[in-house]
Structure formats: C-alpha cells, structure tokens
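Quick one, tokens below:
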C-alpha cells in the first residue's frame, strides 16, 4: 500500500488498476527507463546541442554522475528543484538525474522573472534552483538573489555556466552511486511538476507521475511513428509539456532517436540545424509556423529531411495549415494538448481535411472525454460545450491547491479544461474557444486575474480590464483597458511598471486603452466583447 505525499491527489484505486492491467502504466520510473533505452540503443546518438553530442550510454552515464553529485549534496526523494534552463543538453541530464533520485523538477521557463520565480518558491519550497548564467541577453544572477532572499527552503543555487557567486552545475559531477543508494522512486510516484497556464494570480503546479508521463511520451512516440531514424528538433522551450513529452524529448529517446536542441525557435537558427542534423520531426506553436512559412520566401536551406511538423498550443488557422505541406514539404499534425494531461492528435493517415480543420482525437482509448453545457450536462452530438476529461495520464488535482481543485475537478474526477469544443461525427475535436479567463498569446498562457491584480495596485489606476484581441501575428494579443484618476498613461509606462513588479514580458499588455467609464451588458456586467471591438478599431486607426 502506497503512501502519497501531502498535496498530491492520485487517481482512484480502481482506475490505477485498470491502467496497470491495460499495460499503460509500466513498473519503471523514468530514471530506469533511461537505463533501459541505453541498453537498447547504446551507441546511437541521443542528444545534440551546440557543444555536446552524447550517445545513449553517455547520456545514461552523465545522468548517473549528476544524480550522485546531487545526492551527495543532500538532495533526496520528494525534494523539489526549481529548473529554469534554456534548451541545452544539461537540461536533459539534470532532469534524468532528478528522476533517478526521485526529486521533483519544477519546470520553469527561461522567460519567467521574479514574480513567478518567487511565487513558485513560496508555493513549492524547493531545496535547489538551477538556472543559466545568461540567456538571450538577460543575466539571471539577480533572479537568483531574489529567490534566495525570499525563500528559506533554498539550500543550493546552481548555475549552468559561469558564476563567481554560486556553485556551478559542473561542481556536482560525481562517481556514480549504486541505484539502491539513490532511493529509487516507485513508478506511481510523482516525477515532475509542470506549470499550468492558469487563470488565477499564482502559478499552479501539475504533478505528473513516472508511470503516467512515461506512457504519455511512449504512446505519443508510437502514434507519431518515431524510430531510431528519427531526429527531433526541440525548438519550443523544453520545460513545456509539448517539446518535453508529446512525444518530444522523452518520446524520441524511447524510440532510440536523436534529440537536437535549438536555443531559439526562429528560422535563422532552426533552418540551418534542420539541414545539418537532418531533422525529421519538430513541434511549433502556430505563430512560429507562420514565421517559418514566410522565412521560406528567402531562406532556401535544405529542409527535405523534415517529415512531420506538429502544431499546437493555440488555434491554427486552416489557411495557414493548408500551406504547411506545399511550403515546408512535410506532413502536418495538429496537437491539442494540455500540461494537465489529455492529448489530442490528428493521425498521420488522416484525410487532409481532418488534419487541416480539426485538432484530432485523444491519444489513448482509455481517455474519457465529455462535452458539457454550463449546467454540466452533456450537449447534443456536434454541439459546442466545455471539454471535461479523465484518463491514464490526466491529473486529479493540482499540487497543494485544495480550494482551486474543488472548482476545477468534478465530483467524479474529471478535469474541467475551460476549453469550448465540439466533436465531429468521426470523433475529432474542434476547439471553438474557451470559458476560462485566460489569454493565449502565441501559445503562451496569460491569467487575466494575475495582470489585472497588478494593474489595480498602481496608485493612478482606478480600475482595469484585460482582454484578448485577435492578432494576425500572435493569434491573440492582450489589451489593457484602464480608468485612471486623470493621469495620462502610455503603454511603455505600464510595461516598465510591470517589469519592475517582476512580470515577464509576455504577460505584459501589448496595447493600452484609456476610457472614462465601462460599457455594460444588459445584465450590468462589463461588456468585454465591446472592449475587444474598440481595441481592434483603435489599433486600425493608428496603423
Ligand atoms: C487551440 N487551443 C489549444 C490547439 C492547446 C501539446 C500541445 C499544446 C500544449 C499546451 C501541450 C491547442 N488549439 N491545438 O501541453 O502537450 C490551449 C487550450 C488548452 C491549453 C493548454 C501539449 N492546444 N490549446 O498548449 O498547458 O486552451 O499546453 O487547454 O500550455 O492550450 O495549455 P498548455
């Protein structure tokens, strides 16, 4: 009988047995999976970045060395480690080292700044924080200082790179220790904490177990036809569920393929990499896919190795979808996923119209999906409603978030996604919109409440509303409407103020509109649709 850590809600016992019996949950933790893959694919290239080219054996060995070093430093099973690394080999080595100890990586993004980092530290109480020295012109040392000052649980700040102040990741290199010493986690234990896009002021943590995450990655790799010949380009930030495990890094390793790290997802870096590394598969969000399409007008890199482009994270315009194969010469796969679990994929042999117009269907035959109206009752076939889901790799609760969980999960254990979808007669899902208070800016999720709270704290702002505005480049941009006490405001003032509060750039408003009163709906709520129209008009007048 297993004891679960505080704040983690496991699947009900009967469901666990079903997932085990069906062979979805296998009795291996992710650290053991890597050893298994190393024994199968030993000398194949596993991982490539700007400085490294590691075989499966080397990756396995390096992960063991780092696990030993972290263990020697006192990091133990169930300890949390905040990981904020850009796409590089050390991210993968570190992640597997932590899997082996049973410590839980918290997957922060390089774009995060003080506000998220401090909130994560306070919520999860990590014992260590691993970060780069610099990335894309930003010096992370001040983030380390702030985390240290606000979080008494932090015993180690570890820099991947140059540092005079803190320890460096290379200081944790150590002779491997026997697996038994490193308190091997159970396959049903928590493996990692992913970040949720969220709808509230504080980030929510998504606990994924070894068994569910391994299944997520391995089943995705099979669905996408990955093999030893596959070369996966990690272009999106690797702490995100999509490039990490859908099938991403973990799925590619399960199939014996090669993972290639791109530091940034733009065509200037990725096209030459696709050519030189003969990349066969990668994943993008729609705005990046659009950039790649336009780059093709002047960049004639040889992309002929590319067989499959996965696109997900936000709505893909069918007109853009239609151009993928003619312009980039590869198959398109739409992915409707969520870090909370459920993954929908179009299949590689689906008819073209399905791939262009739908977001596919669930990965697993044990995924349960229902579409409900606002009263929580199933809608008629083909009608739009909220998607609720439960299954072998979908969580039953966020980590340490009891009150939020009470409103986000149904009594029978379904996750209420906040997405509005409809089901086609063939069983494919089409995402029609959402009811959650979130802005999807180029696939990056912004909790409206978080930004509004900060704006309301500004002494000259009397009230404010943040709305998503359709945007050609980003899919959606955020526009802040404010009522002030008379002061005149400019967007850059607001952005400066929010940066100072530690809000990352992507969560800061892209547009600002000052109004004197709120337009109201007939029931007296603020008319957000009208604000969105006003934002569009005002922008059109300026350009
Ligand atoms: C419309 N909205 C989508 C799509 C996600 C693969 C792909 C994406 C994510 C992801 C992921 C969408 N069309 N194709 O984790 O493994 C919106 C929905 C969803 C939310 C989840 C993966 N694909 N979305 O985007 O946790 O609103 O995961 O609920 O970041 O993104 O966001 P996130």
């Amino acid at each position: 009988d297993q004891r679960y850590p505080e704040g983690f809600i496991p699947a009900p016992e009967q469901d666990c047995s079903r997932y085990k019996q069906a062979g979805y949950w296998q009795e291996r933790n992710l650290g053991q999976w890597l050893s298994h893959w190393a024994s199968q694919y030993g000398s194949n290239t596993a991982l490539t970045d700007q400085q490294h080219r590691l075989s499966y054996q080397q990756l396995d060995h390096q992960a063991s060395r780092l696990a030993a070093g972290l263990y020697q430093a006192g990091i133990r099973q169930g300890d949390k480690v905040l990981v904020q690394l850009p796409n590089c080999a050390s991210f993968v080595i570190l992640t597997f080292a932590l899997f082996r100890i049973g410590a839980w990586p918290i997957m922060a993004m390089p774009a995060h700044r003080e506000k998220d980092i401090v909130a994560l530290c306070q919520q999860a109480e990590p014992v260590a924080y691993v970060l780069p020295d610099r990335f894309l012109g930003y010096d992370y040392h001040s983030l380390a200082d702030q985390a240290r000052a606000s979080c008494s649980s932090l015993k180690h700040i570890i820099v991947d790179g140059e540092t005079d102040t803190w320890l460096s990741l290379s200081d944790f290199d150590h002779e491997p220790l026997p697996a038994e010493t490193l308190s091997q986690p159970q396959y049903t234990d928590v493996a990692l904490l992913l970040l949720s896009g969220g709808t509230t002021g504080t980030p929510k943590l998504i606990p994924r177990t070894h068994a569910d995450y391994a299944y997520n990655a391995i089943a995705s790799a099979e669905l996408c036809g990955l093999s030893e010949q596959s070369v996966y380009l990690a272009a999106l930030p690797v702490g995100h569920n999509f490039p990490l495990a859908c099938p991403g890094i973990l799925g590619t390793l399960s199939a014996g393929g090669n993972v290639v790290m791109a530091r940034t997802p733009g065509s200037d870096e990725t096209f030459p990499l696709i050519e030189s590394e003969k990349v066969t598969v990668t994943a993008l969000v729609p705005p990046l896919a659009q950039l790649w399409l336009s780059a093709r007008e002047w960049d004639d890199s040889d992309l002929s190795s590319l067989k499959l482009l996965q696109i997900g994270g936000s709505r893909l315009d069918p007109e853009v979808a239609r151009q993928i194969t003619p312009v980039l010469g590869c198959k398109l796969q739409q992915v409707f996923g969520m870090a909370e679990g459920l993954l929908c994929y179009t299949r590689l042999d689906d008819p073209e119209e399905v791939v262009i117009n739908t977001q596919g269907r669930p990965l697993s035959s044990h995924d349960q999906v229902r579409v409900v109206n606002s009263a929580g009752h199933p809608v008629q076939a083909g009608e739009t409603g909220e998607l609720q889901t439960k299954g072998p790799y979908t969580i039953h609760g966020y980590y340490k978030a009891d009150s939020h969980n009470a409103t986000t999960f149904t009594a029978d254990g379904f996750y209420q996604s906040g997405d509005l979808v409809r089901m086609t007669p063939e069983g494919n899902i089409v995402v029609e919109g959402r009811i959650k208070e979130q802005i999807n800016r180029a696939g990056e999720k912004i909790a409206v409440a978080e930004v509004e709270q900060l704006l309301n704290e500004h002494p000259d702002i009397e009230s404010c509303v943040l709305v998503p505005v359709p945007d050609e480049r980003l899919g959606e941009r955020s526009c802040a409407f404010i009522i002030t006490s008379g002061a005149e405001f400019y967007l850059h003032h607001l952005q400066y103020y929010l940066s100072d509060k530690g809000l990352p750039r992507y969560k800061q408003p892209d547009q600002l509109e000052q109004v004197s009163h709120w337009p109201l709906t007939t029931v007296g709520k603020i008319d957000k649709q009208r604000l969105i129209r006003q934002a569009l008009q005002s922008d059109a007048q300026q350009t």
